[in-house]
Amino acid sequence: MHCGPIRMWLSCGSPFPCGCHRQCRCWMVVWRGGLVPDLLPSKEGKGLTRCFLLQIVDILLHYIKKTFDVKSKILDFHHPHQLLEGLDGFNLELSDLPESLEQLLVDCTDTLKYGVKTGHPRYFNQLSSGLDVIGLAGEWLTATANTNMFTYEIAPVFTVMETVLLKKMYGIIGWREIEADGIFSPGGSISNLYGILVARYKRYPEIKTKGMAALPCIVLFVSEHGHYSVKKAAAILGIGIDNVIEVKCDERGKMIPAELEKNILQAKRKGQTPFCVSATAGSTVYGAFDPLHDIANICEKHKLWMHVDAAWGGGLLLSRNYSYKLSGIERANSVTWNPHKLMGVPLQCSAILIREKGLLEACNQMQAGYLFQPDKFYNVDFDTGDKTIQCGRHVDVFKLWLMWKAKGTCGFEAEINRYMELAKYFYKVLKKKDNFKLVFDAEPEFTNVCFWYFPPRLNLIPEGFERDQELQKIAPKIKAQMIVEGTAMISYQPCGDKVNFFRMVFSNPATRQTDVDYLIDEIERIGKDL
Amino acid sequence: MHCGPIRMWLSCGSPFPCGCHRQCRCWMVVWRGGLVPDLLPSKEGKGLTRCFLLQIVDILLHYIKKTFDVKSKILDFHHPHQLLEGLDGFNLELSDLPESLEQLLVDCTDTLKYGVKTGHPRYFNQLSSGLDVIGLAGEWLTATANTNMFTYEIAPVFTVMETVLLKKMYGIIGWREIEADGIFSPGGSISNLYGILVARYKRYPEIKTKGMAALPCIVLFVSEHGHYSVKKAAAILGIGIDNVIEVKCDERGKMIPAELEKNILQAKRKGQTPFCVSATAGSTVYGAFDPLHDIANICEKHKLWMHVDAAWGGGLLLSRNYSYKLSGIERANSVTWNPHKLMGVPLQCSAILIREKGLLEACNQMQAGYLFQPDKFYNVDFDTGDKTIQCGRHVDVFKLWLMWKAKGTCGFEAEINRYMELAKYFYKVLKKKDNFKLVFDAEPEFTNVCFWYFPPRLNLIPEGFERDQELQKIAPKIKAQMIVEGTAMISYQPCGDKVNFFRMVFSNPATRQTDVDYLIDEIERIGKDL
């Protein structure tokens, strides 16, 4: 590999001991005592470090350009065994001896080459998609600062930024700063776990010392369309999945309040002790919003903790047009909100917000003497690390802060409104197409649009079990072909009595209407002969 | 702010619509519908994106250079209220309207300016320190790829890399690949939680569905010097802190096997059910290694799960000179190992390793239909996301993989051996100094060296309570002064009956012997008149 365009060399601006102008010589790193000797912190390493990192950046910039190029493939698919066996000099095995910097650059290129461009305009595969350039810059800076959120001492700016962001989020939910608390966590599942953990602690503070043995049989409620992480949390917390009661939903996937109340009363009759309801604001598959006011009324009546999993839907609070869909969230006791989903922040960025100051700390603190010394010379209220279930904690706030600076609240709002419009457009186009069938024949609630594609031959089979058996295979086949060709990525799943259907979702800032049209054509192209 | 050195502009190599040569004009971003209009994915955004990201990189490269410059300050300390109120145009508040790109660059510069240079040669504050340039490049790439570890589908290279790294780690521990399993998690505390979670599930698989109500009163054991995350995990898991039994240590902080056995028998007599021992390989403060073979013998005898928290000490396995200190780890059922500590990988990077295939998945899987479709066209064994307690999971493996390629196992070994030598050197120098007193008058076990500094006036006070009262205040005062001057950072804490002492620790690749000498002089300089 050559050292890249000459302008990159010039931009390094540093004379190498080995002479940069003689090209690749400086990359011929010699094995000396196990270190790559010429990068920093080596005394002589400044020039090579700069040059190496600029080469990396060149690879990344090239990748970014391709990511946003609608004509480039989203991925160059290979099977796991192919990657394991090694592809064209891309060997994943690790050895005792070092590789050259030159080889590392090739490895970086290959890592991206065989990966998935999650920022591609036609990547619709997950609730988190897109690549925000400002957020990306934030991540690069975060990586370079390489610090840890546990104390103000070593992360002064980031810990204070976290409080600023949390305050902003409380305000948007409709909470007063004085009553609210929160923390950023490694993802929505962990945030949901926090919600239930704190709910349990609030009701039974003795849980922390004595464990579940001191408690009655506690149960919690979540809709049948709620995220699986609620059950996962119950398993981890020692509550048990059997004690998560699934509440029935209406046909659009919203929890039915009357069913919730029925379930609560049933549980009480059985001698179980309800303590928490986890409502959903933006369900994963249907994008449904539970009726939060009705649920809040029931929670108040039965004195239950109300958690709202707004991991996906939380961002909608930023839209003056659509925030009404989360009306009632201000009455929740805790809220999960993932800026890495609808707000497009790079992975990962998730917050758990609690409407009671001090509870998070009381629940989790262990006062480790080696970290949280009380005799520090600054205000140790900013040593927030003892609120968490972690010790070390990655800095997930800076990218969000920088994006908020770059876009303003209005910028997020405009983008989110655009996704909602795209979802409506997609729905309208599909409605007119004979070979597509919408899971719900009504305007989308959120940016999720669920649908089946029917190849012509399936229209000849009468509705019923046999046709469903065939239909079940269609989405996986279409998706497999899309992946092999690298043209688009979209999710599918079965749900309840519904066989495999596609879930389109809009959260990718690169997506334009033409990409939506393309996807429809692509499904028809691949699917018509299946 | 001007657009930076002209060579940077040349390196952009892209003609701007607004004309790059006319300088700053292209930064005057106009508010149009809430978006920063000229960055990607805007059609016209390629040039500005490249230029903006190169400007960011220029800021980061400047920071990296300063980080490694021993003459630069580690930090420019300000109190939390000062940051909150805003400093010289650095305003953390978020508004409805966007800032210009120009302002964002200033904000990035300020964020670094008021932060802590954790890679500085004289930063000794945490077990994780230093800034590895290759690891950093890995993080930049990870951020750019911006994907999620839950499925092979969207993270093909990274999920396979994870299996390659885990395999390597099993081998180093001494496990056969066929029997072992593991996953990377968000930090050592979560990894320890995994160990205990899986231990509980192995003994009582009904926990997952029925919760703790179906179990007897289970108890686990950890040394009094074990990490606080073991207790935290017990609180979260619903076991309760009271059911974590602290085992006495010898004077160096190693668990006493006879005490462990005594505690186990006592618990059984009380009707409690021991199920797990968490041994420590490299304790946080003293750097102590529990006697793993003795503990393994006891675990085998009493049929207890043996977890080893080698978050800090795990890296020592890579040193042929010192790996004997972890002898017996191969007999553990689970191991926590944080490459972000001794191995110098950027934060965060932690693995939980389990010596039983399938257990992690059985314990945690929920088979969410929308993610883990069984009808995919590739080998879904690589969809490892259902093993975790998370859903989305940050890519923490690439930086480690890239560093391993760059250094080889031998490179890690050489670096770790150097830290051990530095610790010995530090110990020897302190031993000769009258005003320093070592907590242990023997060669360091690990790279931790604990010591007090006695200002001359304290030598006039006879040993005892009064002197201890004074000594307790010395380390915080010295540290506060170091922080204010930005000259060095080192941790202190009290421990048991010992008043505040410094904990020196070596894990920073930039540290040289001269920095060690400097630290000693600095403590004397600040402390002599206290």
TrEMBL record, chains A, B:
Subunit structure: Homodimer.
GO biological process, one term: gamma-aminobutyric acid biosynthetic process
Cofactor annotation: pyridoxal 5'-phosphate
GO CC annotations on file: cytoplasm; presynaptic active zone
Residue numbers of N6-(pyridoxal phosphate)lysine PTMs: K341
Pfam family, one: Pyridoxal_deC
Name this polypeptide is given: Glutamate decarboxylase 1-like
Species of origin: Prolemur simus
GO molecular function: glutamate decarboxylase activity; pyridoxal phosphate binding
Record's keyword terms, sorted: Decarboxylase, Lyase, Pyridoxal phosphate
Family membership noted in the UniProt record: Belongs to the group II decarboxylase family.
